[in-house]
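Record minuted for everyone:
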Amino acid sequence: MKTLYGIPNCETIKKARKWLSENEIDFEFHDYKKLGVPEKDLKQWIKQVGWEVLLNKRGTTWRKLDDSVKNSMTETSAIQIMLENPSIIKRPVLQSAGTISVGFSEQNYTKLFK
């Protein structure tokens, strides 16, 4: 089963959900805000793509962090921040058959599923 991780009011999540539905791809939606992010999954994603890819440095949550925290970011501190503030994780994360895709573009999803 494919799982799409994110927050429901995110525009990128809405686009990804719409694309998956229109292409008749079954998936489960995991809401970060309500369910958090399982630490085991987060660490597995980091193994696959790196914490720098998962950390959304364009969003409000990142901008609200103290500069000293931003400037001294390590994998360990990034994991802690992502667990405490899942909205700082780049969206969406699509988990399928043990692999993940971060972010959404029709081109990438088409390559994954066609």
Notes: The chain has eight helices and four strands. The chain has a mean pLDDT of 94.
